[in-house]
Amino acid sequence: LRIEVEGGGCSGFQYKFKLDGAVQEGDVVYETEGGRVACDTISLEFLRGATLEFEDTLMRAAFTISKNPNAEASCGCGSSFAAKMK
Question: How many Å apart are CA 12 and CA 83, to the nearest integer?
Answer without folding.
Answer: 8
